Structures are given as C-alpha cells and as structure tokens.
Amino acid sequence: MFSQIGETIFEHEVVAKTSDFNMGLEVEMHRADSQGRISSDPTPAGISLNSPWVTKDFTETMTEVVTPAASNSLDAIHYLYSIQNALRAALAPGEVLWPLSMPPAFADANKIELAQTTPEKHAYLERVLENMGRVNKGLPCGAHISLSIDDHVIDIIWEQNSGRFASKAALKNHLYLLLAQGFVRYRWVLTYLFGASPVAEAGFFDPEDDQPTGPIRCLRQSHYGFDMRFKGDYSTIQNYVERIEAGVANGEIIDEAQFHGAIRLKTSGDLTDMEKNGVSYIELRMLDLDPTSTTGVKLDTLRLLRIMASYFIMTPGMQTKDVSVTIQRANEINEEVATENPTTHSQYEIAGKNFLNRLFQFANQIQLGPEYLETLETMMDRFDNPANTISGQLVAHIENGSLLPYMTKRAAHYQDGALMAMRTFNGFADMETPLSAEDLKNNLFRGSYEPSGLVE
C-alpha cells in the first residue's frame, strides 16, 4: 500500500507526525438578528480592522475568526472556541452568529453592505463584486482548514530521498501536490459526509434564478451556491500558477485571492515564485459550517482530514497525465452528490464506502489509534444511513422550505453558552497593536487550557 515516501515515513516511526499535521482554522459566520435575518446592527467594536484573529470578510455582516497555526487539531479547536466566545460576547443584544453556511434571510440584496474596511480593501471588494455579478454569490460561509506537513517529516523524507528531487522545495511541492490532488479527487466524499446546506433562506434566490425544487445535500458546494466558476489546475505546480495567472489576465478572476477553488496552494512569497520557493501549506475550502457544533467544525471532521492527508502522502498518487481527467470527473461527481436528496442513499455510496474502508485499513496498518478508527466508523455509518449525515439531520427540521425556526434556536443556544463562559477575553477592541499568537494564547486561556505549542 505504501509508496516509497510512505515506506520512509513508516520505517522512521514518524507516522504520528504525519497524522498530526500543523493546522490553522478560519471560520466565517454572518451576524444575524434573533429572527434569523441578516443583522442591521453596526459592526461590534470587537471586530478590529487590524486584528489577525477576528475580522470581516466579504460583507459587513460576515465575520471571520482565524486561529494561529497549532501543532494539533485539539489545540486548533480550543483556539477557535475561545476566540468565537470573545466575538459572541461583543455582539449587540439580540444578535447571534448564524450557524449555517447559507446566509440568514434578507429582503433586498442591494442593501447588503460590502465590508467597510480600508479604502483600498473596499475598492477591491467592489471590483470583486463587479466580477462576480451579484452579492448573493459571495454570501455563503464556510470553514477553511490550513494544513502544513511537519518540518521533521519533510527533513526525514529529504534525507532518504534527496536523489529523487532537485531541491527540498521540489520535494515539498511534490508532497503538497499529492495532498491537493487527493483532496480534490475525493472532495465529493466530504460533500456527502459534511454537506450542511440543504436549503437557502428568503432573498438568496430571485424568482427567475435556476434553483433546486427541494432540499439537496449541499447548496454551497454545488453550482447553485458559492461562486466557483473558475477552476484550478492541479496537475503540476507550474500549471496551477499559470492557470491562475491566465484567469487574472483574461478577467475571469480579479487576482489570486478570488480563486475560490476547493484547494488553495500557499507559498511564503509571490505566486509566481511558488515552484522555486516551494508550497508552504494547503488550504481546504470545501467544508460547510457544521450547525450541530458551536464552533462550526467538529474534532471528528478534523481527524478524518488528517487521516486522508496521511493517506495521500504515504500511498501512490496519480500519474501526471491522468490528473486533469480524473479531477474533471471528480468535480462532476461532486456536483451530482451535492444535488442529491439528503435523505436518500448516494448513487456513489459503494465508491464512498470503498474509500473509507481503504482509510480504515491504512489507519490500522499505521496504528493511528482508536479515536481515528471511531471517526471512520462514524463516517461509514453516514453512508449506511443518509439521515445521519448533517444535511440528512437538518431536513427533519425544515418548515415550509426554511430552517429559520430551528436555526434561530440553535444560534441563540450557542450565544447563551458563550455569554455564560467565564474569563471571556474582551480585549480585541482595545488593542492598539495586533496581538501576537503568543499574547493571544496568554489572554485567551489564562491557565484554563494549555496548548501544546504554536507553529512559527
């Protein structure tokens, strides 16, 4: 099962490292009122323009919480939970964070304000809106997961395989390309398991819009949802860069940041230097918010992503000549899965279970531990029982085509919990200079939780 690189990792007993990638989380949520409508309250002081941890995204009501890069998923979740508590504590009375990816209800899209930030950023958002065509396409929110391979793992692979690669940057590019290709290839599995946008609320669709006639698994990851018309090329690093550059040149996208693909490759320098400098991390952008969790993403989800990431770098990948066709087909399958009825068995159920079974064999082989095996059992059950998927659960709460009654209760429940939290940090609004990651850790936890460490 292992590739040559996988054998190196396994033989040098660094499997635990590969299953515990460094991780950072970015979670977007709209501010809403207690009736489930997009909030009309002004932005709270706790959302600072110069804070790297709590900020605004596309519109004035779209908040974004960003965690520092942590050395394990549990730490990342604790950072996310604590920062979100601070944000919730700063909201106006009656205001909540909307726990669904699809936005709260609104009457007039033209009255939705783009984020008021710096003049330069606001001008940029206006250009993005002009390119996008309608503000609606930029409203769906999500959870973005940044993964980087532990430096110790890369060093060991380099020591044993340096003859295969021109430089360490070339090795990193190879590993991150394996991750990107693997996650795009099996994105549809994640859409099935974690899709959580079966319906849209009033205002998102106009009457003349192409729209589903009933609940589907995942509006956001389908052609109905987020603006993902521009497709990336993951066959090589050079092709990835050139595809984005061509998209900017011909006006398909404004710049690299408007590339909303399921996977982004990130480097420490300019995009044009990615091949030379090496990829630094990847950003997974295919996850809906999980409304069954106060944070919008669960630890089980992060564990599955880690198993998948380990599997992709330790087992043989695709040949370059097969990548484009395979990923094109994977995108087609994702659309089919996203638009299925959430309560029915997927037409790709057997393929999904076969993939999870392969992950189960892999996890046993490298002895990841019972918590990972339990995660895989939970995901297998979702293929056996579609009603146990997130969208399958949500369908039971739809009333007259809407989730507003149920979601307003969930949002209020999460808000009440945050306001009951002791030692909530409320200093974002008063910081003259942005908090460093170390200062953030000290202010957030104050001895109540001790993260293992931060990644530089």
TrEMBL record:
Residues of the signal peptide: none
Pfam families linked to this entry: Glu_cys_ligase
Gene3D superfamilies: 3.30.590.20
GO CC list: cytosol
Pathway assigned to this chain's UniProt record: Sulfur metabolism; glutathione biosynthesis; glutathione from L-cysteine and L-glutamate: step 1/2
InterPro entries: Gln_synth/guanido_kin_cat_dom, Glu_cys_ligase, Glut_cys_ligase
Top-level taxon: Bacteria
GO biological process: glutathione biosynthetic process
Residue ranges occupied by any Glutamate--cysteine ligase domain in the UniProt entry: 14-245, 255-331
EC number(s) on file: 6.3.2.2
Family label: Belongs to the glutamate--cysteine ligase type 1 family.
Catalytic function, reaction form: L-cysteine + L-glutamate + ATP = gamma-L-glutamyl-L-cysteine + ADP + phosphate + H(+)
Protein name per its UniProtKB record: Glutamate--cysteine ligase
Keywords: ATP-binding, Glutathione biosynthesis, Ligase, Nucleotide-binding
GO molecular function: ATP binding; glutamate-cysteine ligase activity; metal ion binding
Leading EC class: ligase
